[in-house]
């Protein structure tokens, strides 16, 4: 299914991939049923079969992010901000606070000349109770990883804690070698960033291709619909023209699990 999970020491990487192997027979997902279009969920809801899908959380919010200078066009920057605001709007509703700080304003978010460290988790940006850096977003015109079905990759760094690990750094990379360029598939960039910001905040996929403990199997015919329609579903479907599906709205599964991280009833 084009889904991989890499884990090296305390470095966790999450990949959003293209839809493969006939998962979507007509190249696109069916319309979202009315039953999935619900009001904002304000409680922590972690289904037992998704018990492994919370990887950690930041001790302090909002998490500061920065866009690599010169990497993205203005319309792409607007998509990044729009995605961040989708998460911010949700948490303002449930917890009364933003969770992502992009600095400046919507038209001029924070940018940086920082380079990607050779070892991401060697440079923590959270020291004690003060942030000393930003989560940097990079456009990769040459994709440096073997999996060329991956649209994006978020690598984040947790330290063990209970009930959830503490995240202290992250890096986000977008694949502009195999996507977003002429002759290649064109995902909806806002949808991609909504998904990747979910990873950055500590949410894992709504299901997994391998049926791991604590993750429902994405191929299970009995999997609940809200897992499939979640923004954190691991596969992006494309239509016959190579245009990716828009999936920008946090559904009840995204929201319920998200509240377990930062909501008023977060896990303690």
Give me the strand/helix succession. Answer: EEEEHEEEEEEEHHEH
Report the top-level CATH class: Alpha Beta
Q: What is the helix tally? A: 4
Number of strands: 12
The Cα radius of gyration reads: 17 Å
General form: globular
CATH arch. level architecture: 3-Layer(aba) Sandwich
Helix content: 10-25%
Distance between the termini: 35 Å
Description:
- This protein is an alpha/beta fold and 268 residues long.
- The protein has one domain: 3-Layer(aba) Sandwich (Collagenase (Catalytic Domain)).
- The protein is built from 4 helices and 12 strands.
- The chain has helices at 74-94, 189-201, 225-228, 252-262, and strands at residues 5-8, 11-18, 57-58, 63-68, 100-101, 111-112, 126-127, 130-131, 135-140, 150-159, 166-175, 235-236.
- Strands 1, 2, 3, 4, 5, 6, 9, 10, 11 and 12 form a 10-stranded mixed sheet that branches.
- The longest helix is centred in the first third of the chain and has 21 residues, at 74-94.
- The model is unreliable at 1-10 and 19-30 (pLDDT under 50).
